[in-house]
């Protein structure tokens, strides 16, 4: 699901709605190519031969995290930005609730990859984690737009910057991000095994985490 982080006073509402529809079609077209058919043991969409993406990014403490950092551990990857006010809080809350369902999942690593490299500063990422009470197993990653573009493409995202025209825009921001926030479960071999899309059900995400961990 794609959500538009725009205020209702925008004069380009129809144009942005069309833009969102095109982004939905783009994302679904790519996802169909990497899904398996009818895996009834999983609540999310099982993925077939998804290789993920090579990356080397810095977390909110300027510590390097790569695609190999959590090799051997089942972990989650999702895509957010710190100034998001609708979709990102919902996804964050759902993941947090999911992990808290049991001791087996409580410390599952979660990699948040930025869709707003310009706005997701070290300070704003630290503030985001503090605001949500996220523990050290959550890492909020950012990098330059060129390297992030490669990662977004591998995970079938196409974040778009959209101007805010309202005079009452949050914190005087001039733009917001049109994006999707899928949650990928990555297996212990580093391959995305399942994807959950919005609305994220914490119970279903938890059950799939357990299933993938036991494979």
- The average pLDDT score comes to 84
Radius of gyration: 17 Å
Give the overall shape: globular
Write down how many β-strands occur, each being a DSSP E stretch of 2 or more residues. 11
Q: Which topology does CATH recognise?
A: Glutaredoxin
Would you summarize the structure shown here?
With 215 residues, the protein is of the alpha+beta class.
Care to describe what's here?
The protein is α+β, with helices and mostly antiparallel strands and 215 residues long. It has a single domain, classed as Glutaredoxin, CATH 3.40.30. The protein is 31% helix and 21% strand. A 6-stranded mixed sheet has the order 2-11-10-5-6-7, covered by helices on one side. Strands 1-9-8 form a 3-stranded antiparallel sheet, with helices on one face. It has a two-stranded antiparallel sheet with strand order 3-4. Strand 3 and strand 4 form a beta hairpin. The longest helix is centred in the N-terminal third of the chain and has 20 residues, at 13-32. The radius of gyration is 17 Å and the shape is globular.
């Amino acid at each position: 699901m794609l959500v538009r982080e725009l205020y209702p006073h925008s004069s380009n509402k129809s144009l942005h709605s069309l833009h969102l529809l095109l982004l939905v079609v783009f994302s679904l077209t790519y996802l169909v190519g990497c899904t398996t058919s009818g895996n009834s043991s999983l609540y999310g969409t099982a993925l077939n031969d998804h290789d993920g993406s090579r990356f080397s990014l810095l977390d909110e403490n300027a510590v390097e995290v790569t695609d190999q950092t959590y090799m051997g551990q089942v972990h989650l990857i999702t895509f957010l930005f710190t100034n998001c006010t609708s979709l990102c809080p919902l996804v964050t809350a759902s993941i947090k609730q999911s992990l808290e369902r049991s001791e087996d999942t409580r410390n599952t690593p979660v990699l948040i990859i930025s869709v707003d490299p310009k706005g997701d500063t070290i300070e704003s990422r630290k503030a985001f984690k503090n605001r949500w009470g996220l523990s050290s197993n959550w890492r909020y990653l950012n990098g330059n737009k060129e390297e992030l573009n490669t990662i977004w493409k591998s995970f079938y995202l196409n974040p778009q910057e959209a101007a805010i025209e309202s005079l009452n825009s949050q914190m005087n921001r001039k733009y917001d991000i049109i994006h999707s926030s899928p949650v990928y479960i990555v297996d212990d071999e580093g391959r995305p095994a399942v994807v959950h899309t919005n609305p994220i059900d914490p119970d279903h995400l938890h059950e799939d985490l357990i299933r993938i961990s036991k494979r």
